[in-house]
Specification:
With 204 residues, the chain is mainly alpha-helical. It is built from nine helices and three strands. The chain has two domains: 63 residues, Arc Repressor Mutant, subunit A (Orthogonal Bundle); 134 residues, Up-down Bundle (Four Helix Bundle (Hemerythrin (Met), subunit A)), CATH 1.20.120.530. Helices cover 73% and strands 5% of the residues. The longest helix is centred in the middle third of the chain and has 25 residues. The chain is globular and about 55 Å long. The mean pLDDT is 90.
């Protein structure tokens, strides 16, 4: 993994988990000290995050963590809902036994976990595993990005961390079963229901 990729992953996780808050000004020299990385990988990571709408770069002024508007919240869920059928179809078509083993481990960890913040991050791992099964790097990247934006919403409003509840885990169990049995239409429906329920909980 390139140093700039390491910087990107670390900074993104700091934003997703709300360690870096919306509107917070980011100073390259401070990030270099905090992450013990050079200016070039930090700058490349920030440019990547700007492209993904996690930060805003204002030339010759500052770099800040992006706010999230209600309009953007709605847009995130629209995209996740719209892409769910494609992700499901490709995952069923291309998944391997090794993929299923990895997903089963994700699910087992999620079912055992009681800490809310850790549960949210395990939910992230589960969905990233499903996205990887598509074998489509462009779709995988977009689904992971929308998932991270969704997770950021939970960390920004701590009361919503409980959204990863037993009903949500039940959806995960069905996602695993339908992938295992290659039941594409049922997988599409449960993926859509999962996104819709998540959206309704958050908006509420």
């Amino acid at each position: 993994m390139r140093v700039s990729d390491i910087a990107y992953e670390k900074l993104k996780m700091m934003i997703v988990t709300a360690e870096l808050r919306p509107g917070q000004v980011l100073v390259e020299s401070e990030l270099m000290d905090q992450l013990n990385l050079g200016r070039t990988p930090i700058r490349e990571a920030l440019n990547h995050l700007a492209w993904e709408n996690f930060v805003k770069i204002i030339p010759r002024q500052c770099i800040m963590v992006n706010e999230i508007s209600l309009y953007e919240v709605e847009s995130i869920y629209q995209m996740r809902f719209a892409l769910a059928p494609l992700e499901s179809s490709l995952a069923v078509l291309n998944r391997t036994d090794e993929d299923l083993e990895r997903l089963a481990r994700n699910l087992e960890q999620l079912e055992r976990e009681t800490d809310q913040e850790r549960r949210v991050l395990l939910d992230r791992d589960f969905h990233r595993t499903v996205s990887s099964m598509t074998r489509n790097p462009f779709l995988e990247r977009e689904m992971n990005n929308f998932q991270d934006l969704s997770i950021r919403l939970l960390f920004l409003n701590q009361i919503n961390l409980s959204s990863i509840d037993d009903m949500t885990v039940h959806h995960h169990q069905r996602i695993y079963e339908y992938l295992r049995d290659r039941e594409t239409e049922r997988l599409i429906q449960v993926q859509k229901a999962h996104v819709q329920e998540f959206k309704e909980k958050f908006i509420h």
